Fold this sequence. Notes:
The chain has a domain at 154-268: Receptor-associated Protein (Up-down Bundle). It has helices at 2-21, 25-38, 49-63, 65-71, 74-86, 94-120, 124-173, 178-188, 193-206, 211-222, 225-240, 244-273, 275-302. The protein is an all-alpha fold. It is built from 13 helices and no strands.
Amino acid sequence: MMLFLIFLLLLAAVGLLVLAFAKPKAKEEVQTRLKRVKGGSKRVQRVSPKNKNLAFLQKMEERLQPLAQRQLKKGKDKSLKARMDAAGLYQVTAAQFVSRQILYAGVVPVLFFLADWVVLELPKPVMLAGTMGSVFLGYFLPILQLNADTERRKTEILRNLPTTLDLLTTCVEAGLSLQAALSKVTEMSKDSPLKVELERTLKEVQLGRPRGDALRELGKRVGLKELNSVTIALVQAETMGSSISQTLRVQSEIMREARWQHAQELAQKAPLKMIFPITFLIFPVIFIVIFGPLVISLMDGLL
């Protein structure tokens, strides 16, 4: 029975891989002919192995998108897209992300089976449990990566936010409007997630969206409560006619204090995170170094 279940899991994984390549060639042939007609001089481009692997994975994800589209519900695609926007994945659609989950759910069990067959040689019950667990691990692996990227991006935005607000304050006090100050700051800033978000907000304003709505969308899109409070304060200052420079200066001080509190919180979590490596990695080595020679000498004396 266990062998039959393992066979079904492997068959499903291989079926996903076959489905990824089971695309009609007619469309590819038409695209190739169109490229030949449009292209004048042919240039041979050398593709690195890393780019080839990325293109291979992207091609497989594209083949699995129709299957992923069936799994998406009306509300799920919007919530998933909002989470991907918070992580900065603006070019990835919800169907592409779900197809990546399906692909990983098929590839990881195959890798686990090959590792068990070549190296591990686990018992059948353990191999069955590991194969089933690898399916769930492969399916939820992109979600774990998405959450990690979101938290890392929020931390970087919070780190750069006080300095950006100081630059905005200086530009506004020099006589620039808020939109001109945002444009100047993004032009002078280094590449960072906050710069990307500000550039996206400026493009929305240039396309005709009201500046207040674009600022509110900036706070909601990133999902950082500190940035959301800054955008709300700026919108209220513009609506009430109060001083933008004074509002920016106050928000800069608040954000600097929030950054300091976040650093203190991380420092307080450090001892808890060090318990596991100290208990399971450092202490055993210390015990071996201290008591190892004593045990060896006692064994030699007994023998």
